[in-house]
C-alpha cells in the first residue's frame, strides 16, 4: 500500500508530497529547505524527485535533494533547465519494480507544466497535478504576462479536462492550494479525488473552451512582484539552503536612509519603534509581503524580538531566494524610538477617514460606505489622492495584519495612520 505524506507551507499556500511504496520514495515539488522532507524518509530510498513546473513562487529544492541523495531528478521535458536531469516526456513511463510514474503534459499554468500519475502494480493511485487541476479551481495562466494569458488559458482548458479523464477514484494532490497567489479562485482544501472534482469543481463545468477562458481570466488578482525573479533562478541552478544566520548590529549603526523592517507584533511596534521603519509582523505570510514590498537593492535591517523570530524570518526569506539581510537589530530603547497609535473597530469615530488596503477582489465583495481603497502594495507609490493627509487615516483590511503594514508605510510617508487591529471591514 502506498503512503503519501503532505507538507504544507501555509504562507506560500503550497504543498510538497512524499510518496513511498515498497522501499522506494518519490518527492514532488520540494521547496528549498529539504531537511524536513528527507527526515521523513525512514527506511525508504528516495528514488525520484519530480518537478511539475518551473516555479514562480519559491526557490526549488529539487536539485539539492537529488544531488544529496542520488535520486533521479524528473523535470518537464519542455523546461530544459541548465543542469542535469531526466526529461519527463508526455506518457513516457518511468518504471521501477511495481511503481510506474507516468508524466502527463498539462500546459496552461506554465507552458512546460507536467503532472505525474502514479500507478502501483498497474493500478492508478494518484496524480500530482502541480498548478494544473486544483481542488475547486485551476492554476492561473497569467503569471508569464498578459500577452500569453489567452494562449495559456486555452491550454489549461485542455489540460484540466485531460486530468478529469483519469479514474474517478484517483487521488488528486495539487501543489498550489489555499493561500497561493497561483490559484484562479479561492481553494478550501488541499487534496481531493478526480471524482469529487468532477462533481464540484467549477472549472470542469464549462461546456466549451470560450466560456472556460472568459471565466479563467476574469477578475484575476494582483500577484507578488518577486515572482519575476523565481523562474530564472529555478531554470539556472537554484542554490542549496543557506545557513540561517544574520549578524547582530547595534542600533546606532542605522542611518536615516536605512530600510528597517520591524517584524514584531503590531502592538509591540506601536509601543516603540525606529522612526521610518516598516512593520511587517512575523506570520506565515511574512516572507511573501517582505519580498513584495521591500526592494532587493535596499539591504534591509530586521528588528526582531528574539532569536526564534529571527530564525523563522530568515527561513521564510530563504525559501524565496533572499539569502541575507544587512543585519539584525534588537528592539529599540526609549531614547531611540517613537510610538504610534493603534485602533480597534469600536474606536472608529463617526467621521473616520477610512482606508481599505485589501485586494481588489475583496473590495468588490464588500466596500464600506465612504471608505477609500488602495491595495497594500500600491501604497509604496504614495497615499490615494482623495485622502486628506492633514487628518488621521484609519487603515483596515480583513483581519488587521495588512492594516499594520499599510499604516507603517503611510507613517513613513508622513501621515498619521492608525491600523485597526482587532477586526476587518466585515465587522463594520
Distinctive features:
428 residues; 24% helix; 11 helices; 6-stranded mixed sheet; single chain
**Mean pLDDT across every amino acid position:** 95
- Helical content stands at 10-25%
Evaluate the radius of gyration.
23 Å
Basic shape: globular
Largest sheet: 6 strands, mixed
How many angstroms does the end-to-end distance come to?
52 Å
> Unreliable segments (pLDDT under 50, ≥5 consecutive)?
none
Question: What portion of residues belong to β-strands?
Answer: 15-25%
Number of helices: 11
The secondary-structure class comes to alpha/beta
If you had to describe this structure to a student in words, what would you say it looks like?
By secondary structure, the chain is α/β, with parallel strands linked by helices. It has eleven helices and 22 strands. The strands form five sheets. Strands 1-2-3-4-5-6 form a six-stranded mixed beta sheet, covered by helices on one side. A six-stranded mixed beta sheet has the order 7-8-9-10-13-14. It has a four-stranded parallel beta sheet with strand order 16-15-17-18. Helix 10 links the parallel strand 19 (354-356) and strand 20. The chain is globular and about 70 Å long.
Amino acid at each position: 500500500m502506498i503512503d503519501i505524506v503532505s507538507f504544507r507551507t501555509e504562507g506560500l499556500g503550497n504543498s510538497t508530497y512524499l510518496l513511498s511504496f515498497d522501499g522506494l520514495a518519490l518527492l514532488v515539488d520540494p521547496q528549498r529547505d529539504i531537511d524536513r522532507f528527507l527526515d521523513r524518509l525512514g527506511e525508504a530510498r528516495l528514488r525520484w524527485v519530480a518537478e511539475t513546473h518551473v516555479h514562480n513562487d519559491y526557490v526549488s529544492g529539487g536539485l539539492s535533494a537529488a544531488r544529496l541523495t542520488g535520486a533521479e531528478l524528473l523535470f518537464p521535458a519542455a523546461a530544459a533547465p541548465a543542469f542535469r536531469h531526466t526529461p519527463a516526456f508526455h506518457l513516457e513511463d518511468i518504471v521501477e519494480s511495481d511503481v510506474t510514474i507516468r508524466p502527463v503534459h498539462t500546459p496552461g499554468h506554465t507552458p512546460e507544466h507536467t503532472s505525474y500519475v502514479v500507478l502501483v502494480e498497474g493500478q492508478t493511485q494518484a496524480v500530482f497535478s502541480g498548478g494544473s487541476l486544483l481542488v475547486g479551481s485551476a492554476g492561473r495562466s497569467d503569471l508569464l504576462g498578459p500577452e500569453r494569458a489567452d494562449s495559456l488559458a486555452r491550454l489549461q482548458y485542455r489540460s484540466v479536462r485531460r486530468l478529469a479523464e483519469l479514474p474517478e477514484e484517483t487521488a488528486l494532490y495539487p501543489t498550489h492550494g489555499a493561500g497561493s497567489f497561483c490559484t484562479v479562485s479561492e481553494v478550501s482544501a488541499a487534496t481531493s479525488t478526480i471524482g469529487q472534482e468532477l462533481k464540484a469543481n467549477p472549472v470542469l463545468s464549462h461546456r466549451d473552451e470560450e466560456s472556460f477562458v472568459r471565466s479563467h481570466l476574469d477578475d484575476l488578482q494582483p500577484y507578488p512582484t518577486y515572482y519575476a525573479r523565481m523562474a530564472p533562478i529555478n531554470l539556472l541552478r537554484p542554490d542549496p539552503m543557506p545557513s540561517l544566520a544574520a549578524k547582530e548590529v547595534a542600533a546606532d549603526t542605522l542611518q536615516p536612509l536605512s530600510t528597517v523592517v520591524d517584524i514584531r507584533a503590531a502592538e509591540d511596534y506601536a509601543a516603540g519603534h525606529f522612526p521610518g521603519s516598516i512593520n511587517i509582523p512575523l506570520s506565515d505570510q511574512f516572507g511573501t509581503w517582505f519580498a513584495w514590498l521591500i526592494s532587493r537593492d535596499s539591504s534591509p535591517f530586521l528588528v526582531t524580538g528574539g532569536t526564534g523570530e529571527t530564525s523563522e524570518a530568515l527561513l521564510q526569506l530563504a525559501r524565496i531566494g533572499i539569502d541575507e539581510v544587512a543585519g539584525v537589530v534588537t528592539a529599540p530603547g526609549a531614547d531611540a524610538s517613537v510610538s504610534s497609535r493603534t485602533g480597534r473597530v469600536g474606536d472608529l469615530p463617526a467621521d473616520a477617514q477610512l482606508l481599505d488596503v485589501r485586494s481588489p477582489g475583496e473590495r468588490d465583495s464588500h466596500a464600506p460606505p465612504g471608505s477609500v481603497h488602495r491595495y497594500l502594495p500600491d501604497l509604496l507609490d504614495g497615499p490615494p489622492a482623495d485622502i486628506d493627509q492633514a487628518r488621521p487615516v484609519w487603515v483596515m483590511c480583513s483581519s488587521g495584519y495588512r492594516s499594520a503594514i499599510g499604516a507603517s508605510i503611510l507613517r513613513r510617508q508622513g501621515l498619521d495612520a492608525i491600523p485597526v487591529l482587532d477586526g476587518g471591514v466585515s465587522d463594520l
